[in-house]
Each structure stands twice: as C-alpha cells, then as structure tokens.
Amino acid sequence: GVCPLVYSQARLTGTVRNIDEWGLEEVSVYVLSTNGTVVGRDNGTDWAGNFLISGLAPGTYVVYAVPAYHNQDFGGSYAPTYYGSSSFAGATRITLAAGETRSGLNMIVS
C-alpha cells in the first residue's frame, strides 16, 4: 500500500480593526490559495476583532476579510480587504511551514 501524505496543520491568527483601532466583530476572514480558491475560514471575529484559522496545509496563502455588517456606531460601512492591500493582486503572500502558527496578522478595514 501507499502511505498517505501526513502533515502537521498550520494556523493563522490576527485581528481586524477599523482605522480608529476599534476591533470589528463578526468579520469573516478567509484564507485563499494563490489562485484565489478558498481553503480555510474563521467563524467570524470576536468582539475585539480577533480571528483564528487552523487546519491549513503547508503552502502560500492570501488572507481576505469581509465585514459581516455595517457598524454605524463606528463610522459607517467597511469594505472587504486583503492582508496588505485592497486588491488580490497586491495582497501580501504568507508562506506557512508544517505546524507553523503565524500570529500578528493585523488588518485594517476602512
């Protein structure tokens, strides 16, 4: 028989905030492959804007944040954004090794 490929899963953690540094709740955070396919997602940021995405294979990824609603209390609506850019093409690529936890992915939506 052939042994299946076994890898130690990687994780990404960070926060989503507005330009005034307020954490944004219920933002959907996605991990995309470099061809744009969704390979992982968070269940929505917590009250402070924190997210955790686990179960990722080693590889290179793009992170995308989509605010779930428009928070009128803190300046109105927020546009979806990529980590490091407002566009997929300009987004920062993140390469994860097997078992790696990459923290500090802090995203600002405006």
Ordered list of secondary-structure elements with their pairings:
Blueprint: E1 10-18, E2 27-33, E3 38-41, E4 50-56, E5 59-67, E6 81-82, E7 94-96, E8 101-109
Parallel strand pairs: 1-8
Antiparallel strand pairs: 1-4, 2-3, 2-5, 5-6, 5-7
Largest sheet: 5 strands, antiparallel
Residue fraction in strands: over 45%
Radius of gyration: 15 Å
Through-space gap between termini: 53 Å
- Low-pLDDT parts are none
Number of alpha- plus pi-helical segments: 0
Overall residue-averaged pLDDT value: 88
What is the N-to-C succession of helices and strands?
EEEEEEEE
The amount of helix comes to under 10%
Shape: globular
Q: How many runs of DSSP E, i.e. beta strands?
A: 8
The helix-and-strand class reads mainly beta
How does this model look, in words?
The protein has strands spanning 10-18, 27-33, 38-41, 50-56, 59-67, 81-82, 94-96, 101-109. It is built from no helices and eight strands. The protein has 110 residues and is mainly β. Strands 2, 3, 5, 6 and 7 form a five-stranded antiparallel beta sheet that branches. The chain has a three-stranded mixed beta sheet with strand order 4-1-8, with no helix packed on it. 0% of the residues lie in helices and 45% in strands.
Please name the defining characteristics of this protein.
5-stranded antiparallel beta sheet, mainly beta, globular, 110 residues, 3-stranded mixed beta sheet
Short note summarizing the structure:
By secondary structure, this protein is mainly β. 0% of the residues lie in helices and 45% in strands.
